[in-house]
User: Fold these one by one.
Assistant:
Number 1:
Amino acid sequence: MEGRLYTVERTPRGVRVTIPAQREWLAIAWIGACAVIWGVIEIVTARQLLAGRDPEEGAAAFLVMWLALWSTGGIILFSTLAWHLVGREVITITDRSWTYRAEAFGLGRTKVYHAIAVKNLRALPYDPPPLFTQRSWPLPPVLGGGQGPLAFDYGSRIVRFGPSLDTSQAMRLVRALEDA
């Protein structure tokens, strides 16, 4: 069964739901421009550090620290860009487990939930941030996210996912899963 922004299919292992990330072209253009600027600054700083030409004492230590933080920002930046370009969430439901995977270019994170502890799958209201409609901004699900209109109870926690869906799409997906 296919929805506008998701697919639900029966496999030999169970039911698999695939939710691709929304392609936010404004965000992709903005993040791409930031990535170019980030790259130039990263290269200039690394070259200055490696050249060892900085005359001030303690400047090298500052540059190493600054470069480490700047590089961490680059990881977040490129992960967000990858998410917007090719990201997707894959949820596999079997009798024994619910497996959630958020990935882009085959890299990502996987969480496994015991099926017996998963309760009350539902769609909850979820409003997008004002700047971009991608509900995972600024951190995409590949970096943690934990946002979206789809939710289920897992023990005492509420697990949320599906940031690319709006509430009505999430409700249709819940009904499709109930029928599957």
Number 2:
Amino acid sequence: MPGSADSAAGSVMLYLTAFDGLTCSVTDSLELTVQQCNVFTLPPMADTTVCRGAFCFDNALQMPDNMEGITVTYRWEGDMSGELYEGESSTYCLTPDQFDEQYYYLTVTTSNGCTFRDTVELTVKPVPSVDELAGIRYPFGEAAVAMCPGDTAELHIEPSVYRPDMYIYRWSTGDTTETTRYTTMAANDSVTLSVTSRVNGCTADTVIAVTVRSRPTISTAPDTVLCPGQSIVLPQIRLDNQALTMTDYEWQQAGVGVITSGAYSKTTPQPAFTVTPTDDTTYYIARLDGDGICGSAPDTMMVVVDVPKWTISPADTTVCYGAEVEIIIKTLSGGDIRTMTNMPTFLNV
């Protein structure tokens, strides 16, 4: 019979010779392949207790380095559902609907014909329910569905399901209270609330999406200078991002408030609006987007009213007819505007 030396070789030839008692004989042979299953080891898996929703089996067949060319197939089955997985990976993670089996069976098969089996009993603990647990209040009232970059929203646990005696709550902002405040500059963002049972230690997460609308940018016109009594028509508003849908616009005057407003159209010019400032004045445009949420980053236009301000020297004086008189006109900043000499006795400036 084959021995250990034959097993190491992988196969053995057996010969059978039959004699008739005289001079005749006949011989036949048989090649016997010896499976080297005793060189493999499948470590037994211990029964375990897990939280529902996240668990992976990992039990790789161990083999010596000289077993090149041997492939291994892993097959997992549940005691109620049958086959759960079959493939070459020794790691298998249960899907959410595969936690209701009590016993899980592993069958490992090698390409040289060896088979190994193991059984695991899995006790599954429930996780906290996070359905409809948390909500968000945007800074524009109960009907608001989004916020603007840089605004702050309040996220909260619904009072009817808030149970700090049974659960530990932790927001991704770091807060562990019933509410948290969150400020964002991102176009799309989210906040996570983790809930841990004080009874069994299992944790479940819920993600609250935070909708952030882009704040449009606009441009009007450069600053300008007017003389006293002059007027200017406020320039047309230009929306830099033509992909946005805008509905309304309004012009405001610093220290006064809204001076004109109307519906915005990408194709129809805004009606002309004339202003006649009496002093240096700042006008700025504030706009709302199509959802009535995010105002634009304001674009300002400074109108400087250039009222002439100067000093004249000398003061009132008496001179002889034909005398040379120098009159100097200076701005308040000290620069000479002009110097006049050999002027007549009477001079209007």
Number 3:
Amino acid sequence: MRPLQHSSYANVASTLALVLVLGGGGAAVAAGLAKNSVGSPQIKNGQVKRADLGKNSVTGAKVANGKLTGADMKDGSLTAADIDLSSLPAASVHASATSSGTLTSTQAEISSVSFTAPTDGFVMVSARAVLNAGETGTYVFGHIREDGDSLDNLYWDAGDTDGFYDQAQSMFVVAPVEAGAHTYTLELDERSVSTTFSAYTEAQIAVQFFPAGSLPVAPRPAPAADAN
């Protein structure tokens, strides 16, 4: 058998250095990496954490287009400065032409306006007419409808029997509206009249659309029936 060779100091030192580098000397390995030499293939999937990212290091260029959603945004954090306001639906006003005529005891449409809501939102519907009473002791029933459904109603005084249009009456209602086409109508009829009905002029209905809003107070309920 060959006799064991004595280890020299140089042998021991070189062996110890190799163990430190390969075993626990990760810092030595990292120190030896060239700049920009670690890429995605060298990183285990899912191992980069939030703590590894520098503050303000992620920019819009690093985010895939269309990947951020409302769930990624803090509620109330976006302001007008963050939004392209030209891309939002704008408030709008739509009004009918004015009409004139004579009322009857039958509820009838005297003015209407149609418009298309670009999104869900709210509308303020206003209606008016100027009346000239034909007899005393009568009253006019005004009714606003949306697509045939009742939105609001009000009793109007027809004014004096003096031959002048002297009683301007109006009503309005605020209500939520769904995106799409809608028609709003003003209907009038006169009640408690014997022979002479009131005349009306400048009858008009207008709709103001708002893409957002709120109804802290419920609107007045519509009548249970439309009986004259």
